[in-house]
Design goal:
Elements lengths: L15 H7 L26 H9 L13 H14 L3 E5 L2 H12 L5 E5 L4 H13 L3 E5 L15 E7 L11 H10 L3 E5 L4 H4 L9 E4 L14 E5 L2 H13 L6 H12 L1 H20 L4 E5 L9 H7 L6 E6 L5 H9 L16 E4 L17 E5 L5 H19 L1
Parallel strand pairs: 2-3, 2-4, 4-5, 5-6
Antiparallel strand pairs: 1-7, 6-7, 8-9, 9-11, 10-11
Helix pairs in contact: 3-9, 4-5, 4-8, 10-13, 12-13
Catalytic activity: L,L-cystathionine + H2O = L-homocysteine + pyruvate + NH4(+); an S-substituted L-cysteine + H2O = a thiol + pyruvate + NH4(+)
EC number: 4.4.1.8
Family: Belongs to the trans-sulfuration enzymes family.
């Protein structure tokens, strides 16, 4: 929960599917309206000098200036914080903004960062360029390292960054073991929790200090808004992140915040369809001769399946596919160019199914990437799985026909 007066009170006795409908607002605050109003506001006025000073003193919690939030963004922050099991949340303009704000708020020149090797590529690029220019050293580590992370922690290590499952290759991390080792050495732990959303993985129950969401994905859920969030349980961390977000000029538009709230209300319902549908498609792909391996922690033969069963409440619709070596780039293009339902796009989490050629996108520096064949990333949307499977089947026919 947040301290926002618009949080609607604690609902920890309700299950997540119930809380997701009611978190972050109270209709009694808005003349009985079910949804919080959309406040388009930059300037906030005050009747007296004393009121202005009082609001400035409470600028981390109050409506003070549009860059620091409005009642609409406060409602979103309160809802996400409650659902992730946190206490405070800071919303920003994208998932990458959420990542960069966390890194800038917690690290300074001379500090050391441990970054998972399977991280979202723009995060890696940020570390290798802007963060390096600030004098912060980054060491990439094997996503499967678990408690062995202790051997990489240095006196200057301030933060261990996790992402589970990992981008493109979907390794499941032992976040709990990593957090125990990091905290024993005095380091904080951040998690990019976008794959699991606020309801499939409980970050703070597993030792995470800051949970990041690219809310553009499943929270918005309709591919029509850019949004990111950072959730915390520690007040001092919240103020550090909130301050930096304001200092670098992050401000969430009222319409984007509203779209995030709108999408959040149906998140559990969408996941209940997209998660099982994704597993159905993944199982079908396992039986295809063109497929070497399906990268999905929900599959029993996945190396991370045990950790997934221990720590997660379900699956989303995003996973990877390794094709058997042999097809040319032209054959892969023939497969993808003719898809009728799977569209090509760099985002995911919406209601539509997506497919992306990731063959040249997987970057590793701590551990080698040894697969020689093409690779794909699939996001299963709300379409009927049978139709998606038929689309893929026709695509495989084009793949093999192009090389035949």
């Amino acid at each position: 929960m947040t301290d926002s007066p618009r949080s609607g009170g604690s609902r920890t006795d309700f299950r997540p599917e119930t809380r997701i409908v009611h978190a972050g607002h109270d209709p009694r605050d808005h003349h009985g309206a079910v949804n919080p109003p959309v406040y388009h506001a930059s300037t906030i006025t005050f009747p007296t000098v004393a009121d202005l000073k009082r609001s400035y003193a409470r600028r981390f919690d109050d409506v003070y200036y549009g860059r620091y939030g409005t009642p609409t963004t406060q409602a979103l922050d309160a809802a996400v914080a409650e659902l992730e099991g946190g206490r405070w949340c800071v919303s920003v303009g994208s998932g990458m903004a959420a990542v960069s704000v966390v890194l800038m708020a917690l690290l300074k020149a001379g500090d050391h960062l441990l970054m998972v090797d399977s991280v979202y590529w723009p995060t890696r690029h940020f570390c290798d360029t802007l963060l390096a220019g600030m004098g912060v050293r980054t060491t990439y580590y094997d996503p499967l390292i678990g408690a062995g992370i202790a051997d990489l922690i240095e006196p200057e290590t301030r933060l261990v960054f996790t992402e589970s499952p990992g981008s493109l290759t979907f390794e499941t991390q032992d976040v709990r073991a990593i957090a125990e080792a990091a905290h024993a050495a005095g380091a904080l732990v951040a998690l990019d929790n976008t794959w699991a959303t606020p309801i499939l993985f409980r970050p703070f129950d597993n030792g995470v200090d800051l949970s990041i969401q690219a809310a553009t994905k499943y929270i918005v859920g309709h591919s029509d808004a850019m949004l990111g969030t950072v959730t915390m349980t520690d007040r001092a961390l919240f103020e550090r992140v909130k301050l930096v977000a304001g200092q670098v000029g992050h401000a969430v538009g009222a319409d984007e915040a509203y779209l995030g709230l709108r999408g959040l209300r149906t998140l559990s319902a969408r996941l209940r369809q997209q998660g099982p549908a994704g597993l159905e498609v993944a199982r079908w792909l396992q039986g295809r001769p063109e497929v070497a391996r399906v990268l999905h922690p929900g599959l029993p033969d996945d190396p991370g399946h045990g950790l997934w069963r221990r720590d997660f409440a379900g699956v989303c619709g995003l996973f990877g596919v390794l094709l058997t070596p042999g097809p040319t780039a032209e054959a892969v293009a023939a497969m993808l160019d003719g898809m009728r339902l799977f569209r090509m796009g760099f985002s995911w989490g919406g209601y539509e199914s997506l497919i992306l050629d990731t063959t040249r996108s997987i970057t590793r520096t701590a551990t080698p990437w040894t697969h020689d064949g093409p690779s794909l990333r699939l996001h299963v949307g709300l379409e009927d799985p049978a139709d998606l499977i038929a689309d893929l089947e026709a695509g495989f026919a084009r793949l093999t026909g192009a090389d035949g």
